[in-house]
Structures are given as structure tokens and as C-alpha cells.
Amino acid sequence: MTNFVSSDSIVRRIWGDADVILLVFAGSAAEFALNKAVDWLFFTGKLPADPIARLFSTVRYAQEIVFAPEEKARQAISRMEAIHSGVENKRGYAIPDWAYRDVLYMLIDYSERACSLLHRPLSPDEQTELFQVFRAVGAGMNVPDLPTTYSDWKIDRQAHLDRDLERSPFTDRLFQRYRQQLGGWRYNLLRQAMAVLVPDAVSHRLALPQKPLLSQTIGLYRLLNSIGLRSVVQRVLLPTEYLSQIRALDQR
At 233, is the pLDDT very low, low, confident or very high (cuts 50, 70, 90)? Predict the structure, then answer.
């Protein structure tokens, strides 16, 4: 049976690593709070009500696609399209095409950035593979005007960053919710993680730390991970009520 993503793909390694996934969504949580289409998140109310639960539901969809046979992955993509169409019908108008592309671009970009931060930079072939997988997801959802190469995507990614970001009351409401759910010191840790991941266009608008301490401690994380203390680090840093769900993200 053909897989949607090959079993030896870098995409499976990225999306089968709980720590990398958490960083992908730290970056995405920062950037999408600035997106000019962020009001769509507030229409359903699900993300503002419980951002962490929304994270897990989104990851489950992503992993279902990445680790599923071709047919089941296509079915999952179709379900995602149907869910978004239902929201559009309730609200009475369509989510902009550029907003769909923004989300796909975030997943590509932060997958690469998170892997580079925690493990190693991607090779040119792996960059292309990562891009092609998420481009196939976008094509399956009938998102128009997707770039056809990784190089073209880099150009369009920057254009979206230049055009689609602004700080708004929705931004501040989301960050207040992150703080309420995580508590003070874990919220500050989240902002540190965001600061080492996001492009300057995002960092400046959110006034993220310019010299995040976290960037100086990544080597320590790698060392503790290499000597088998990953579970201890997770228990210290992550909310205990979500720890089992976070560890379940591992598909290694």
C-alpha cells in the first residue's frame, strides 16, 4: 500500500518528534496571532477558548496525513477542507485564499526551523521534500496559486510576511489566553521559544526578547536528550496535565 509520505522521509522524522512539533506550533502560534485573517479563529471560538487542546487536535490531523497510507491521508485532507467549508458557510463568506497559503507556509517554515534548532539543518533535497509534502496537502484542499518549487515558495513566503501581518486586539487576546493556560514562567518560556524561531517581521511586532536565553541553552537540551534525560526535561518544562498527550506525539 502506497504511503502519502515515504517511510524514510524527513517529514516523518519531523512530525514524529514531540519536541520538534511543539516548536513548530510555538512559531505558528506567534505568527498566526498577527495574521490579518486571525479573526476566523475567533468566529468558532475553539482556539481562543483552549489553545492547547486546539494544538493537539491540529497535530492529530497532521500526523494522520503524514503517517497514513495515501488513501486515508487523502480522506483526512478532504475532511479538513469540509470542516473549513462548513465554517465558511456559517459565517457567510470564504476564508481568503492567501490565509490558507499562510498556514501552509507556516507549517513548512517552522518545520524546517524547529528541526534545524533541535537537530540539524535540512539538506536541499530535504527542503524540497518538506515543501512538496505540504504543497500536496494544499493542492488536496484546492488552495490556488501555490508555488511549484521550494525556491519560488521562499519568495512567496517573504511576500506573505511583508503583506499579511499586523498586531491587533485579536493578537493581544490570544497572548493573554496563552498566559492564562500556561502560567507565568511557562508563558515566558513560550515567548523565548518564539523568539528563537520566528522571522524578524514576527518578532518585532510581538516585541519578543531580542537576546533570548533559550538560544544559549539549546546545547544543554541536546546533551540531556543524548544521555537519556529527555523525559525528565519534559516533566520539568511542560504542563503536567498535558504531558501524556505530548509524549503520545512521538512516532519514532
Answer: low
